[in-house]
Structure prediction request, 957 residues.
Amino acid sequence: MSETNGHGELPGDGPRPGTHGEPAEQGYPAAAAEAPAGPRRVIGTPPPAQARTLLGRDGPTAQAAPRELPADPSDLGKAKIAERIAATCFIIATLAGIGFIAAYIGLPVHSVDAVLRSNLALGTALSLAMLGLAFGATIWVRNLMPAVELTEPRKPLASAPADRAAFAETFEEGTDASQFVKRPLLRRTLIAATLPLVVAPVVLLRDMGPLPGTSLRHTVWRKGLRLIEDVSNMPIRPSDFSSPGGMITVIPEGYATDDDALAKAATIIIKLRPEELQHPTVLNWTVDGIVAYSKICTHVGCPVSLYEQTTHHILCPCHQSTFDAPRGAQVIFGPAARPLPQLPITTDADGYLVAQSDFHEPVGPSFWERG
Amino acid sequence: MSMTTKLVDGTGGWLDDRFRGAKGFRTAFRKIFPDHWTFLLGEIALYSFIILLLTGTFLTFWFQPSMTGVVYHGSYKALDGVRMSQAYASTLGISFDVRGGLLMRQIHHWAADLFMAAIFAHMLRIFFTGAYRKPREVNWLIGITMLTLGLLEGLFGYSLPDDLLSGAGLRILEGVIQSIPVVGTYLAFFLFGGAFPGHDIIPRLYILHVLLIPGLLLALITAHLFIMWHQKHTQMPGKGRTDQNVIGAPFYPYFMAKTGAFFFFTFAAVALASTFAQINPVWLYGPYTPVAMSAGSQPDFYMGWLEGALRVMVPWEWNVFGHTFSFNVFIPGLLPLGAIFTGLALWPFLEAWITGDKREHHVNDRPRNAPTRTAIGLAGITFVGVLLLEGANDLIAEHLDISLYTTTRIAQVAVFAAPVIAYIVTKRICLGLQRKDQHLLEHGVETGIIRQLPSGEFIEVTRPVSENAHAVLTSRSQLPTLPSPDSADENGIPAPASRGALGKVRARLHTVLTESVELTTGNGHGGAGGGNGHGQASGDGEPAHAAVPTGGPRGAASGDAGTSSSSGSAAHDGPGHDGPGEQADS
Prediction:
C-alpha cells in the first residue's frame, strides 16, 4: 500500500469522490482495489443524520463516525502528477541539504574570497533545501490533500451567568476563608512588608554607574597639551599648513587609545586666512588663522567629519547640522542648537600647536544640568 | 494494521495513559482555521523570530561581548594590527574564521529586518480590518508591546558588533537619553556605566539582547498565540461567514502543513537574501572610534523614522534657571515614538467608546467600510513614512540631486501637511469605493452585452453579483447609532449620551468616525432574476439595465446552467466577465 493511502483499512474509507464520474481505478488502482465497498456519499452532502457526531463518542462506536474529511482528492490523476512534482521538490531539498554539508566540509574560510565562496555555496544550498521543502509541501497541501471547507460554530466568549456567579461565590468563599478582608491589620502589614521589596530592585541598580558630577563639563585638554594628528599621531606645527586647506582631526597627546577621553576631547583644526576669522571666533585662541573646535556635535554627539573648503562649512554626517567655521562655528542649518565650542590654542617652545586650556564650556550634546 | 493506527494506539496510547489527551487533541486537530493571504503576515513574524533564535544561539558560541581593547591579527588582512574591542574582533572572527559564520550573521540580520517588517505589516492588517476589536483588545496590546520590544531588541543587537556605525548609533542613543529633562544625565550614566562610551554598555546590551528581551518576546508570543487559538481566528467577509462561525480548513493536516510550508518559505527568503544580498558588512566600517564618522550612514529601517525625526527638528533649546531643555533632541527622540505607540494602544478603547460598539467581532471589516479609521491609519503611515524618508535625506539628496537642506525643509512641512492630505484623500477614496460597491449591488455586474428591446430601446445587460461577492459587498459592521450632537427631544432635553462636554465631544467624534455611504440592500441579487428591476419595463428615462440571473455560487455547475438557460444573450457571458464580481472577494 502506498503511503498516501495509509487510511485504507479504516472503516469509513469507503466514500470516494466521484464527482467527475470517472472510476477511481483509472487514477489510483491500488487505492480503489483495497477500499472496502460501502455506501457512496457525494462530497458536500450531509451524512445520514443518525451517524452525525460532533465529538468522538466513547467506546468502539466512535470509530464508526462518518468522515468529515474525504480521504482522497477529487482528481486522482492530477494528484498523481502533483505527487511526482512534490517528491521531486523533496529530492532536490535532500540533495541541497547534502550539498550544504559538503560545502561546509569542502570549502575553507579564513580569507575574504574564500569566505564569499563559502557563503555563496552554503547559502545557495540552504536556500534550495528550504525552497524544495516549501514548494513540495505547498504542492502537497494544495493538490494532494482533498479540498475541504468546514464550518465550526463560535461559542460566545463570555461565560454563562451561572458560571460567573459560581466563580464569584468561590472567590468570595476563598476570600472569607483567607481572612484577608476581615483582618485589616494583617492585610495592611502585609502590604507594608512588600513595599520596600518593590523599591529595593530599583535601589540595587544604583551602582550601574557613577553619578555624572561635573564630568560632562571637562575634557582632558589642559594648558600645554600638544595637539596630535589623529592618524599619524604626530604633533603639528603651524608651518605644516602651507596654505588654507582642509580640516584635520586632532587628539590630545597621550590619549590615542583612551576612548573615554577621546569621546569628549576629539577636536578639529582648520586653517583659514587670518582676515577671514570673524566674531564670535575668539582670535586670541587661534594661531596664524588656525582655529580649533570640538569635533563632538552639540546635537547628539556624532563626530563632525565633513568640511566644505569653499564655504568653510563644517557638516555633521549624522543629522546634517552645519557650522560656520570662520564665525565661531555657529549653527547655519540643522537640529544642533549651539555652536561647536572653540579650543584655545597656541604654540609651545618647540613651535608645536598646544592647548592654552580646556574648553571653556561643556562639549557635545546638551544635558539637563548644563545650563 | 496500518502505520497510522499503530502510531495512535502505540505512542498515542502510552501518552494518553498518562495525560488523558485524546479528547482535547481531537478537538485541537479539528480546529478550523480560516484562510486569507494577510493572515500569513503574523506567521512571517513568528518564523523570523524562530530563525532569529536559531541563528542567534549559533552566534553566541563565538561572540565575545567585551569592550576590552585588542590588536587584531586575524584573517581579515585589511585590519591587521588595528586596535579594536574584543566584541568587534570576535565579530570578524565569526565572519571570516567560522564556516557558515558569515551566512548565519547575515541570516540573523535579514531575519531581524524581516521580523520588524512583518510585525509592522501584521499590525497594519489588524488595524485596517478592525481585528483588534472586542474580544481581541488584549492581544492587540500584547502585539504593541512586542513591537516595542522588537525595536529595542533590534537596536541593541545592531549595537553589539561595536563597528563604527553601531558605535555611532549608541552615541546618538546616549545623546537622546541625556536630553531627557531632570533624569536624562543620570539615566545615561547608569546605562553606560559612566561617561560614553565606557566599558559596560556592550556586555549590558548583550544580556538584554540574548536573554531578557527574547525571553519576554517568547512569553508574549506564547500568550499571543494561545489567545488567538482560544478566541479563534477572525475571518474575512464572505458567503456564510458570520460572527457566530468560523469557516476554513482543519488544523490537522491542512493548517499544519500549510504553515509548515510557510516556515520553509520564510527561511528560504531570508537565506536567499543572505546569500546574494550583503547586509551590514562590519569589516568595511572598521572598529568604533569616537573620533570618526562616515557620511551616508543609516540605521536599520525600523529605526529610520526616529533618525528622520532627529533630522527634521528645528534647533530649539531653552536655558531656564541653569537647566537646559533640549527640545531639539528629546521631542523628536521621544514624541513620535510615544505618540504613535500610545495612540495605537489606546485606539481600540477610544473607538469602542466613540462608536458605543460593545459587541464581539469575528468577521473583519473591509478597510473601505471604516473610512475614518482607514484614513487615520493612512495618516499615521504617512507621518512615519515622511520621517523615514527624511532619515535617508542625505541619500535622497545625493541620488536625486536636490539640495540637502531643501529635503529637510520639505520634510519639515510634509511631516505636518502630508498626514492631513493622506487623511482627506483616503477618506474620499474609501467613500468612493463604498459608492462603487453600492452601485454593484444596485445595478449588478456589467456584462458588456447590449440588447435591443422590442421597442427599439437599447439596454445594457447586467448580472447580479455572485453570492460570495454579495456577502462581501454587504458585510458591514452595523454600528449602534448615537443621538446626533444637537439632538433633543420635544422638550428640548438632550439625549443622555450626548450630555455634558464629554458627551458632546463623543457625539461629534461619533459623527466623524461612522461616516459611511448608506448601504441599501435587497436588489441586484437573487437566483430568481427578479432582484434587479431597473429599466426592464419602466421606460421612465432611468439608465436602462437588465438583470441576467444566476443561481448559486460562481463556478458551481448549477449556477452556470441557470445562466445559460435564462436568456440567449447570456450565452456570451464567458469567464471574462467574472472580473468585477470576483474583485469584490478580495
In short: Residues 1-39, 49-62 of chain A have pLDDT under 50 and may be disordered. The two ends of chain A are 85 Å apart (CA to CA). The first helix of chain A runs from residue 24 to 27.
